[in-house]
Design goal:
single chain, 884 residues, alpha+beta, Immunoglobulin-like, Neutral Protease, domain 2, eight-stranded mixed sheet, five-stranded mixed sheet, 26 helices, 33 strands, binds zinc ion
């Protein structure tokens, strides 16, 4: 159901989930638990030995029974229940546990009934420590030692204990963990008691009762960790610790340096101390489908994000940790202190944390949030939102697949871009005021999107107007496209004519949407560029340019490169923009180049014009713009290049690759120079492999091969950021000897980062025989053991299918070997093999894709959507091919 507010434009969905248990109380719920019972608090004691395959647990749940019933339903998955004891008042009885085999456990009073009022359920059970996936309680081996860590978001706490596993239930939790004495044990709160456990050689770790928390934010880590004391940070002197695998404590150096500062920047923004008792930063050897998780007081990170040896501590590594860390720590206020009432507001959690993370990084190290880096998230958002079936940020969550589908590019990147746009419109000061009020008023409770918008609108004094404008971007999918013409008539101030409508990719017929878009335009003026902002509605708008009497030489549509909309110029403005592009401010030039890329990929800008934008971008003195141009060239689809016309687009691109990209690559070279900026280092990472591939300069390939071999002998032999581009290039053009050297090291190394880089490179090998050899290796066993683990194979398949040059043969191999592949991948991930297939771009390939995946993908949770999205991308790609 859609509920209309503020003049009908703002339609906030209200949860319409049909609560189960309507007639037969003994029938399990279909999705949500409903309101028959309310959890009040939990006491969980888990016995976990990371060396074992299973764990044991006892959970005592205090709840309020709201309606008399013979059975109480809650969540549990893959658990084996030994006993259930119920106490209500003076009455104690054993209940029967009914597991539906999927998500639910029913506590059945058999002949009796649960009466209205408080009840205590004590459930004894065992569960599995997940070996491949990283959800529930999972175990992984690192350096010969076993570790157990938890990952409960979104709906995986139920693998660890029976509970009311929905985000709206916030209760105190008392966690106790028994573990063999050689392990270090951490949970959300400080340890308050350490005693001997009932089992010989085990210790019992009791943790302080938590603040009210939802099940998905509970966390634990057990293993022989190196524990690095990080001192304290912030207004309440929050204690910080870093947990690394045994022997690798020193590799948390950068986290230890940057985390306190990030925490303090966030405290300043929220004007509130860090809201929990402590902060542990914990390494997970290898994660599946997430990088880090904001559990209260215990943030987990994939080891490659968190740990680095001194020679691996590149600027890119530092920026990535700081950016992810800022995102996760921002969640402590936004998500953890104030929690979403239901998963339909996942976007609010994630887009706010993404936006806040970017802002915090901009304060911490401004150079990390400028140029190309600043535009990455916006470009990704626009690319995801171009699809006809792009979902709105706010969308009802009606089944299990919807929960995980909500964690996508739209949620993270579009949400962040929309918040940026509205921050600029409402002004940063008022926006911040709204955020502070929202967090303060709802601390330790729950909230919805509407509560947040209202706080923003009130703080900005724009009430319903802000609600309506923001609501249009939140509740509707799609991108506003602004067609812009410059009018300069004598005696009248120069003005822009702006026509707004929904961006419709070639071959699609998506419905129109209505927006009021806060848009800003930059243009040249005597004394430096000027900016004029306006609220653009659908249809025709006239925007007089302030501060200029004469016609400006150029106009850029996205001031400071912000805004979730795209500007398309008429012929005259395009010509002017191209002439002046190398003199435009960096952010505006980056947006021009990357928007031209998006328009050409969606069939809305002819390739010959887009190529001119890219070559002009390479002429810009700012490396951020040069990088935008290389990133744009990198994704030009071979199917979009033609041989007709003059110059034919294939020839024109070859010329740019040879004369611009090749020359630039030779200038920058494979090695860093002492006074390189971080932006220059980032550019080199994409430029060199691109030029080695496309410029025809064989020397670039030879040098990459020599440097790869040198790196194999001595890890200090290449700059940390250049290891991936060097290995990728060496592997793409590998002869047998080079391939074998890389393969041998990939199989031998125990260093997670090295293995990942090597396998990712091998997945790109072009030689047909060697490619087949690598693919065969990925499903090969030796002595009953996988030669490459399932988590690694999942990533290498993405790496291979991402490569235009090998996609088709790799896809054919995947079809032939799907069953063997699916058998070893982490549960429910095989449908992810469709992820990079949206770049298939011929009707024949599309046919193969449909024939193979239309029935297979939907067998996995969320698989139907995973099947459909690439199909839409393919259709656009095919429709955008040049007609000849
Ligand atoms: Zn997040």
């Amino acid at each position: 159901m859609l509920k209309s507010l503020a003049g009908g434009l703002l339609a906030l969905a209200v949860s319409t989930v049909a609560f189960a248990q309507a007639d037969d109380p003994r029938k399990p719920p279909t999705f949500r638990l409903g309101d028959a019972a309310t959890p009040l608090d939990y006491e969980a004691t888990l016995a976990i030995d990371p060396k074992a395959e299973r764990f044991e647990g006892v959970i005592r749940i205090r709840m309020r029974i709201n309606r008399e019933s013979p059975v109480v339903w809650m969540h549990a998955r893959s658990l084996e229940v030994m006993s259930v004891e119920i106490r209500q008042g003076s009455r104690t009885f054993a209940a029967q546990a009914t597991l539906d085999g999927k998500d639910f456990i029913g506590l059945d009073a058999k002949d009796g009934k649960f009466t209205v009022g408080e009840a205590f359920a004590t459930i004894r059970y065992t569960g599995a420590l997940e070996p491949l996936q990283t959800r529930g309680l999972f175990r992984q081996k690192e350096g010969g030692e076993w570790y157990v860590v938890s990952q409960f978001e979104a709906d995986s706490a139920r693998y660890a204990y029976p509970c009311f596993d929905e985000p709206g239930w916030k209760t105190p939790w008392q966690i106790t963990i028994d573990a063999p004495a050689t392990n270090f044990v951490a949970s959300n709160t400080p340890e308050v008691r350490l005693t001997d456990a009932p089992r010989a050689g085990w210790k019992r770790h009791a943790f302080a009762i938590t603040k009210p928390l939802p099940s998905y934010l509970i966390a634990m880590a057990i293993g022989p960790f190196d524990v690095v004391d990080g001192g304290t940070a912030g207004r309440n002197k929050t204690p910080l610790r870093y947990l690394a695998p045994k022997g690798r404590g020193a590799e948390t150096r950068w986290a230890k340096e940057s985390t306190p500062r990030i925490l303090e920047i966030l405290e300043d923004y929220f004007d509130m101390p860090y809201p929990f008792e402590k902060l542990d930063t914990v390494s997970i050897p290898q994660t599946v489908n997430f990088g880090a998780m904001e559990n209260v007081g215990l943030i987990t990170y994939a080891s490659t994000l968190l740990l680095a040896k001194p020679e691996e501590e590149s600027p890119a590594f530092k920026r990535r940790y700081a950016a992810v860390g800022a995102h996760e720590i921002a969640h402590m206020w936004f998500g953890n202190l104030v929690t979403l009432a239901w998963w339909d507001d996942t976007w609010l959690n994630e887009s706010f944390a993404t936006w806040m993370g970017q802002k915090a990084i901009g304060t911490y190290k401004p150079e990390w949030q400028s140029g190309w880096q600043r535009s990455v998230s916006r470009s990704r958002a626009l690319f995801a939102d171009r699809l006809p079936s792009a979902r709105p940020l706010h969308k009802p969550v009606l089944e299990r697949g919807d929960i995980n589908a909500a964690f996508d590019r739209i949620t993270y990147d579009k949400g962040a871009a929309v918040l940026s746009m509205f921050e600029a419109w409402l002004t940063p000061e008022r926006f911040r005021e709204g955020v502070r009020t929202y967090v303060k008023e709802r601390a330790y409770g729950s909230a919805t999107s509407r509560d947040f918008f209202k706080a923003l609108g009130d703080a900005a004094g724009k009430g319903d107007e802000a609600l309506a404008a923001l609501g249009a971007f939140v509740n509707q999918p799609g991108i506003p496209l602004m067609d812009v013409t410059l009018r300069c008539e004598s005696g009248v101030k120069p003005a822009l004519e702006v026509k707004q409508s929904r961006l419709r990719p070639a071959g699609t017929n998506v419905p129109e949407m209505q927006w009021t878009t806060p848009a800003c335009f930059t243009y040249d003026a005597p004394g430096g560029p000027k900016v004029t902002c306006a609220e653009i509605a659908n249809g025709a708008n006239r925007v007089p340019l302030s501060g200029v009497a004469q016609c400006p030489h150029w106009v850029a549509g996205n001031a400071r490169g912000a805004g979730h909309y795209i500007v398309r110029f008429d012929e005259a403005l395009t010509r002017q923009a191209l002439l002046s592009l190398p003199t435009l401010p960096e952010a505006e030039a980056v947006a021009l180049v990357s928007d031209a890329a998006l328009l050409s990929r969606t069939g809305l800008l002819p390739m010959n014009k887009a190529l001119v934008f890219f070559s002009r971008g390479l002429d810009h003195p700012a490396v951020g713009v040069q990088q935008a141009a290389i990133e744009a060239l990198k994704v030009v689809h071979p199917e979009h290049l033609g041989t007709v016309g003059y110059p034919a687009t294939a020839t024109a691109k070859a010329t740019i690759d040879r004369e611009f990209a090749g020359a630039l690559a030779r200038k920058y070279g494979w090695t860093e120079k002492p006074n390189d900026t971080d932006a220059m280092r980032e550019l080199r990472v994409v430029l060199l492999p691109y030029a080695a591939d496309f410029s025809g300069d064989k020397a670039l390939r030879t040098e990459a091969r020599d440097r790869a071999r040198q790196w194999l002998r001595n890890r200090g032999g290449a700059d940390a950021m250049m290891v991936t581009p060097i290995l990728d290039t060496a592997a793409r053009f590998a002869d047998t000897a080079t391939y074998e050297a890389l393969e041998a090291e990939a199989l031998a190394t125990t260093n997670q980062r090295d293995r990942r880089q090597l396998l990712s490179a091998l997945a790109k090998v072009r030689d047909d025989k060697l490619m087949k050899r690598f693919l065969a290796l990925s499903i090969e066993k030796r002595d009953g053991q996988d030669r490459i683990g399932g988590r690694d194979v999942l990533l290498s398949m993405d790496d291979a299918l991402e490569e235009d040059a090998v996609r088709r043969p790799v896809f054919a191999w995947v079809r032939e070997n799907f069953d063997a592949l699916a058998a070893k991948l982490p549960p429910e991930t095989p449908a992810q093999l469709t992820r990079e297939l949206g770049r298939l771009c011929t009707p024949e390939d599309r046919k193969d894709y449909v024939a193979f995946f239309s029935e297979r993908a939907p067998r996995y949770v969320g698989g139907k959507r995973r099947y459909e999205l690439p199909l839409e991308a393919m259709d656009i790609c095919i429709a955008a091919r040049p007609r000849s």
